Amino acid sequence: MTLNSLDASATSPRAELPLADRAASLVGSVIDSSTSLLASQTHDIVRFAMGSPADEAVPLEVFRDINAQVLDHSSLTYGATEGEPVLLNALVDYLAGTSDPVDPERITITAGGMQGLDLACKIFINPGDLVIVESPTYTNGSATALSYGAELLEVPVDQDGLIVEALPELVAAAGRTPKAIYTIPNFQNPSGVTLSLPRRQRLLELAHEWNAVIIDDDPYGLLRFQGEDLPSLQALSPGDPLLFSVRTFSKILAPGLRVGWVDTDPAVRQLVINAKQAMDTCTNVPAQHLVAEFIRRGGLDNHLAGLRVEYKRRKDAMQQNLRRHLGSRITTTDPEGGFFLWLTLQGEDARISTQKLFETALAEGVAFIPGPALSASGKFDDALRLCFASTTPERAEEGILRLRQAMDRELAA
Ligand code: PMP
């Protein structure tokens, strides 16, 4: 079975079904399909594919303890759409002590970052609207825009993130201004690169010139393990009505909780609440209590500090292993935080299709996400995304050796 065969768009529904027009734009996520595909494999696989925190990084015992304390009838009934007050308060208090304080008037709790992206697109995107996306990008995010009928304008990233200087010319060529700009400013998924300060400032100026909303998707910002912190878009433009910021606990606590938040203009927040009431009424209440109590006990700072140390160790080890075992056959980005690095095949190896390599590598016992699955138009067949966060350095070395074996097999084929 291949990764693409699990993509929902690969099977057409029966023509006679009375589908909505938008059903045609509901493209499946190749990234998420990898979870099901890997779950169905019985052989040993080193998993560099999904962007999951390390099992060891999830504070299971603390959650077990908190669960015994917080689970009661009040946490098993409907909650407030905007979020449980205990979590809203804990979050506002926690962030008040960081460089990114939040205004309680702007916060809504969501079912993870994905729901935040969906709400942003639901509120701002009409069919046919132009949406700028990074290239490569987190294609679950670009697919959300597509599901509301957006037309995507892909703009490349370099080591300083989205090439903001290229935007005016590309927008002029498109013949209309964008309605939204979807960016992942810190340790971008999939490339690992970070948007520089001058580009952050210029992006805000352009968004105002075009009256375009910035969908500022930042799941990894609290996971910087080297280099200087940069001010967030929210810090550079406090109270900006054009900023729709999407945050999540998935990468810093546990993705299965499905708890995140959005930070928006208060008037937009009311639309977020209205939209959520027609969507899921409220976010999972027990999960919000687990997160709230975890923060209230004062564990988050220590937890984050531990993650930063461990993820730096894993990133360094991954790069060392790549250098040792693949040398000049590849180049990689050097992320200063987050989960991912982007590997580009060089020389002879650039002939290899990473989509085909995926299958060979899976047979060898290693999984990654091929470049085309991380591009709105299927580019980057000579590149791939590796998640360094979820694998120990020892396992990672084994994974890189298997990757080399798969590359050798592809070259010889
Ligand atoms: N945005 C980006 C850039 C991500 O990497 C992810 C998770 N892979 C999400 C959004 C979705 O986060 P969540 O799992 O909280 O829905």
From TrEMBL:
Keyword Cell membrane included in the entry's annotation: no
Record's keyword annotation contains Transferase: yes
Domain Aminotransferase class I/classII large as annotated: residue spans: 45-400
Top-level taxonomic group: Bacteria
GO MF term set: transaminase activity
Cofactor: pyridoxal 5'-phosphate
SUPFAM superfamilies: PLP-dependent transferases
Protein name, entry field: PLP-dependent aminotransferase family protein
One Pfam match: Aminotran_1_2
Swiss-Prot/TrEMBL keywords: Aminotransferase, Pyridoxal phosphate, Transferase
